[in-house]
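quick one, two chains, predict together pls
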Amino acid sequence: MDLHTLSVRQASELLNTGAITSVALTSAILEHIRAVEPVVRAYITVSEDLALQQAEAADARRRNGEQVTALTGIPYAVKDCLSTKGVRTTCASKILENYVPRYDATVIQRLEDAGAILVGKHNMDEFGMGSSCENSAFFNTHNPWDVTRVPGGSSGGSAAAVAAEMTPFALGEDTGGSIRMPAGFCGVTGLKPTYGRVSRYGLIALVSSFDSIGPLTRDVADAALVMQTIAGHDPHDSTSLRAPVPDYAQTFTRDLKGVTVGVPVEYFAEGIDPAVEAPVREAVTVLRDLGVEVREISLPHTPYAIPVYYLILFAEASSNLARFDGVRFGLSSDGADVLERYLHTRAAGFGDEVKRRIMLGTFALSAGYYDAYYLRAQKVRALLRQDFDRAFAEVDALVAPVCPTPAFKLGEKVAEPLTMYLSDVHVVAINPAGVPSLALPCGFTGDAPPLPVGMQLIGRPLDEATLFRIGHAYQQATSWHLARPTLAS
Amino acid sequence: MSQHIDRDLVQHIALLTRLTLTEEETTLFSEQFSAIIDYFDMLGEVDVAAVAPFTQPQITRAELRDDVARPSMDREDFLVNVPQRKGNSVRVSVVLENLAVGGDSSSADRQP
């Protein structure tokens, strides 16, 4: 049996019956990482020694009859923007190349308490700024379905690793599609939870009012299982919500009678590749067959989502990244005085896309431009949220494509920042509005090699349960989530 | 409102952002910023006269936790990532020259 191919639930069952040990499972994952990493390049750091220690502890926990969870002994890896005590955390930036946190993010602590095994840290666009993983300061990650293409971004390493079976599950972070877009491009399941549902403590911030940590998995049931462990209030994050977390698996049903889903017309407008539109339309038919009532819905402010999202991102990122001054942590360059030291440190430590975005943020916040750009973006943001509130008065969820095209070629868009930004058109409205969205595979393009196509189910604030229920029923009726890329290894 | 971002403005923003740019970066960013901001000017079409800004998508109010003393981060844990330290202090560049060697702090405070 190839242990690296197991889903979280499959592995958990075999661990519980004693058919396999966590050491064997973890070793199989580490071996598979060694075999395919030269082709995929998903990992910035592999924490092999720590993983094997944790696996031995998990096996001992079972042997000694101590309390175990569904994640005890299960390997996982995370996007390299989550602080991991004693394990280098780079944000794929030169400015943090040698940074080793002295504390764990809350989500890491919760997974460790549950007995999960950290095998490593995934590549990403530097500080989460990108849609293709090509803005990593270190190397490009390749899409396992076609290694000449991007995995999507910014959690590209995490999506590629789950697709290539280099980890049973991963945690990513979604600021404006950074979980959903790579999940769509790589054919895996990924959830951007409601803002505040999962603690951000220990996450290296990009946009403090957008950032959401969530799972990337082989299927919806695994995503629900991981959310069960990481969601919920955290006293370390005052923006984390106190709302109770339902038992997601209890809400799963085979049919979807009584559920109403909206199809937002703006998400199927001009510019969508027919090879993407067809599988998403087909998925809507599958939902209808499962008993869903489907209705056309309008989200009229969708065309403004890109400027709203990017202007607020630029502004908040410029403020968040001001902390990288070469004084307290990270890269530090010499300079004759304090100003020169800042200038040299930041010029040497940040990549081009980071420089572009924090400069545009400084511009949007500066006197004379603040009202026209930043403040206006925050007002149009209110209208984006209002679109969703009105839609959710009529329907339980919305279904839409994740991206207008399948995964594009490495190098295709990297020279034109605006072209790259426009590829985010279907994912960016979600974060300014703060609502949850679940991305899942719904088919393939017809061309060779076939590329995964993803759809997203967008829900009411805090109603991840309905998204999981719809997504799980869909995956019971279809097999797109079971397809795996073939990698030369 | 169309906003051309010329090289001088790019250099000015770079200084505010605490970055230095090469000549090539300045030229490239000037072109790219102008294209991006031109595109974003579409927000000017939206009537926002009666709309309040939406800054935090929170559904419930953030609640403050009880003010209970608890252990804080160990000093060594905090200092271990500091690039330049002296004993238990973080070494920083001099900010106010007159304060460097027992200077008159009241006059230094009046420096512009």
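The CA atoms of residues 46 and 52 of chain B lie 13 Å apart.
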